[in-house]
Amino acid sequence: MKLPVSTPGTTDQDLLQQILVLLSERDQEIASLKHQLAWFKHQLFGEKSEKRLIENPDQLALGEILQDKPEEQETPTETITYERRKKNRPEDCVTDQGLRFTEDVPVELIPMPAAEMKGEDADQYEIIDYKYTYRLAQRPASYVILKYQREVVRHKPSQTLTTVAAPSGLFDRSFADVSFIAGLLVEKYRFHAPLYRQHQKLESSGITISRGTLTHLEQRAGHLLKPIADEVLNSCLESRVLTLDETPGKAGRKSKGKMQRGYFWCFYGDQNEIAFTFSTTRSGRVVEPYLKEYKGVLLTDGYSEYDRLCMKYPKIIHAQCWTHSRRYFVKSQEVEPEAAKEALDCIGAIYQVEDEIRKAELQGEAKREYRQQNGKPLVDQFFNWHEEQLRRLNLVKSNPLSKALGYVNKREKELRLYLDNPDVAIDTNHLERSLRCIPMGRKNWLFCWTEEGADNVAVFQTLIVSCLLAGIDPYKYFVDVLQRISYHPARDIRELIPRIWKEKFGANPLKSDLDK
Q1: Hey, CA dihedral for 382, 384, 387, 392, is it positive or negative?
Q2: Which of 238, 368, 430, 442 could form a disulfide with 422 if both were Cys (CB 3.0 to 4.6 A apart)?
Q3: pLDDT tens-digit profile of 132-185?
């Protein structure tokens, strides 16, 4: 800290005031550095949930629980009778000691004969009923070899031999049934099991296949399904409200021992479907070709490239996410606990209004009116508080609260937009939940060897996540579509995207030979 120098005309009181200002700035810088250190510790060791802890005066602390309790004295008791509402469960759900399963789950019956029925006087007993106990069991793997028995026929007069043609497979000269390929994709991209783990699982089941063959099957399936994934993206771009975000992923070698960093761009349409694309850069030029013809609301986080694109193309109305704004105030809690609490409480009240809308299932104009009557006053209150904080003289630029205030100050118009449009969500949380498959996969298969592999990741996750959003079993979808796409008209490719496939083919999908 550089002390002020006395100049002609400077009084001792002025010097003292300057020293106090410098000391205040130093204290805030130290607090900011402590905050950064606490943030790094939290990233390494802390919880990642954004839910706020609510203090409950009725909840005992751990120390209180471990204290020696005084001997309890006997107190008079009374019997209370009451009616309890029966829990809602599916009608076809069987329960036993907390275990629940539907009729679709295979059940093997294990008879347990009574000893009395085998004794000398067994004729003195008769079976009048059965009691059942259930246990959950598991087999190491469930692979099946389909053995096709093809008859060879000889024509007696001509002595010529003929045989039944070999069954056609999904790929020429491939031993893989469509059920195996569908299972391969679902295991890797829904349950995040890398191919090497699936290879180990096959070996433990007594089946020997090269890992290169598994990779080749995945690549061929990706080429086959790419037109459908592209059509899902086209469907998303037709939305009135489009949510957009990006998440990192590594693909291809940058240098020896180092992978190339890339990004998966995620488009979420208002028909509850999502499309992924991959690029080696985070530049807005990647998504500009998709957005230059778009007309509607684009909901994003605070990444500057989105703002630049919306300014370049006036047909795009830009809305921004409240959750991302809230995170900046969360980061400022260590340095500015009181101000951060005021901001978080106000934002929490805004979200409470949205929760009430969801519970009441309001839509359209009713939803807009409820936001105007209940949400808008809270938003006004938040930005009035925000303006008061901006006028504080003791805030330096390095203070996390200054960064939080500056973030929302630049985005007030975009943050208010949801109040006037009932189709716009208050945040991008629905997209972040759906794109979680990418970081989950990244924690398991770590990276893609090539950019082509990353493109296949985008194709498969587009279809799997869109299936889950539409309530479709991805395995059944893949088994059907992988067989159907070879003869389905290219002009009707839209029929094969998950949400429309469910309406047209979901009731009677194509099956593999294993399930016929």
Answers
A1: negative
A2: 368
A3: 888 777 666 688 888 888 888 888 888 888 888 888 888 888 889 999 999 999
